[in-house]
């Protein structure tokens, strides 16, 4: 339980202050824990980063079970949640993505979470008639990632898309892939 609290607080710190702001003290403060609590569970900065990314992967344990005939709505709902209620975790994820390009020890943990989502997308797309589910999953995930990034950190953040616009975009992408939406 305490590790989850520390992981959640680390995600919050990273989203709010970036990787440079991630310190044991900042996590203690964000979590409302006594000074030194984070150090007890994660002795080094590397251990703290690993704990945070593991918690993110745990929270992202996505069960993709879109209702029949409603894949576009499901995908749009996923994106909408990521840019609204999931905003903090997504901002932290972008910080981790950049950090993982410089720190190979984070790359594996970061990629592990992404591969789970890609595999599940490929399964769903295969069930919906995709002729090339792995390739189509890459295209769909790229649309998801690009749309979320633009809405949170890009120029699109000036006017993030609403659920209706996201649903239409998801329908267009799925139709382009020849997948029943």
Automatic annotation (TrEMBL):
In terms of InterPro entries, this protein maps to: Homeodomain-like_sf (IPR009057), Tet_transcr_reg_TetR-rel_C_sf (IPR036271), TetR_C_31 (IPR041583)
Q: What does UniProt list as this organism's lineage?
A: Bacteria, Bacillati, Actinomycetota, Actinomycetes, Pseudonocardiales
The Tetracyclin repressor-like C-terminal group domain covers 68-176
- State the name under which the record lists this protein: TetR family transcriptional regulator
The signal peptide, as residue positions, is none
Q: Which SUPFAM superfamilies match?
A: Homeodomain-like, Tetracyclin repressor-like, C-terminal domain
Q: Which organism is it from?
A: Amycolatopsis oliviviridis
């Amino acid at each position: 339980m305490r590790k989850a609290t520390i992981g959640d607080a680390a995600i919050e710190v990273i989203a709010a202050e970036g990787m440079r702001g991630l310190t044991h003290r900042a996590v203690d403060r964000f979590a409302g824990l006594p000074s030194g609590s984070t150090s007890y569970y994660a002795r080094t900065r590397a251990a703290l980063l690993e704990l945070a990314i593991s918690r993110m992967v745990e929270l992202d344990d996505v069960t993709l079970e879109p209702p029949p005939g409603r894949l576009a709505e499901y995908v749009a709902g996923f994106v909408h949640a990521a840019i609204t209620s999931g905003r903090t975790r997504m901002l932290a994820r972008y910080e981790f993505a950049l950090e993982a390009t410089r720190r190979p020890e984070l790359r594996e943990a970061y990629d592990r979470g992404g591969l789970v989502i890609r595999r599940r997308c490929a399964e769903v797309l295969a069930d919906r008639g995709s002729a090339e589910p792995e390739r189509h999953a890459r295209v769909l995930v790229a649309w998801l990632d690009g749309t979320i990034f633009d809405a949170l950190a890009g120029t699109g953040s000036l006017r993030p898309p609403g659920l209706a616009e996201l649903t239409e975009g998801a329908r267009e992408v799925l139709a382009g892939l020849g997948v029943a939406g």
